[in-house]
Specification:
By secondary structure, the chain is an all-beta fold. The protein contains no helices and 19 strands. Strand 3 and strand 4 form a beta hairpin. The N and C termini lie far apart (about 85 Å).
């Protein structure tokens, strides 16, 4: 039978340092109330100091070696102690629960600029363009396919495939010279690079190139009318390296045909195919 709710509380309500933390029935006393203070200088996750309201001391945890007796065993501890800035034993990371990656066709939107990842031609790199999400009802429902992607699972990683061109997103290593950092550009090929996709603390998505341990992000604004490039040249989280995955399962349903009995009207776009053209012989 499920018991009553229990809470984390300082043992015997003590205010002394190194007092152990126990688990007791909830009663609302300040010995079981805690204040969370975010660690502001960490960019590799969400870390917090936790202070007990009764004692004012910080929650601390770790592992110790018990050297008494014949068996030397490790054991974990949880106690309250005087706050020490940058003490890793007092920093607790909030781990975001596992969230399924959206399935179906998606639009990939940059958090910083609002630009949408697009691919129009098979032999050109992907670009980030300015487009409304979702698009206004349109006769030519394929006009949005260049901005639609699907995530193909590959042993815990993902490959990004474009709906219009059928190409896969991949990263490629580039060397800028002896005095400049190497970086990874992003292009499209027949074989895509497996990427790791995970949520950040703001419930946006990070897309990792694990070979170079870099985050995919939007390059600085360019003068190209085709849009900005995608690069993977930093591992530091940043809004330009953060994404929203917008499901587009209703796009085709919003397509309007001129008449109910006629087939859909397709976009008048020329796409260079990756396959070799067939040879037709004349008789």
């Amino acid at each position: 039978m499920k018991g009553p709710p229990a809470v984390m509380e300082v043992v015997n309500g003590k205010r002394e340092k190194a007092t152990a933390i126990g688990r007791y029935l909830a009663h609302g006393h300040t010995t079981a109330l805690w204040r969370f203070a975010r660690v502001g200088d960490r960019n590799d996750g969400e870390f917090y100091y936790i202070f007990n309201l009764h004692s004012g001391l910080a929650l601390e945890g770790g592992t110790l070696m018990n050297i008494s007796g014949k068996d030397h065993k490790k054991y974990t501890y949880l106690c309250q102690d005087e706050h020490q800035s940058n003490d890793s034993a007092q920093m607790l990371e909030f781990v975001i629960p596992m969230t399924p990656v959206p399935v179906g066709w998606l639009q990939i939107k940059n958090v910083s600029t609002g630009h949408v990842l697009s691919h129009t031609y098979a032999y050109s790199p992907p670009r980030l363009i300015n487009q409304q999400l979702p698009p206004v009802r349109t006769l030519n429902y394929r006009e949005t396919w260049d901005t639609q992607w699907t995530l193909i699972s590959d042993k815990g990683e993902y490959v990004l495939k474009n709906r219009l061109t059928g190409c896969l997103l991949t990263t490629e290593f580039e060397t800028n010279g002896p005095n400049e950092e190497d970086r990874r550009g992003v292009t499209m090929m027949g074989g895509g690079s497996p990427l790791t996709i995970e949520l950040d603390a703001q419930r946006n998505w990070k897309i990792w190139d694990r070979k170079g341990n870099m985050l995919l992000g939007e390059a600085p604004a360019s003068t190209s009318v085709e849009g900005n490039l995608v690069v993977a040249n930093s591992s530091v989280p940043d809004p330009t390296r953060s994404w929203r995955l917008v499901p587009m399962h209703e796009v085709d349903a919003t397509m309007i045909a001129p008449e109910a009995s006629t087939p859909p009207m397709y976009a008048a776009k020329t796409v260079r195919l990756t396959s070799s053209p067939s040879i037709v012989s004349e008789v």
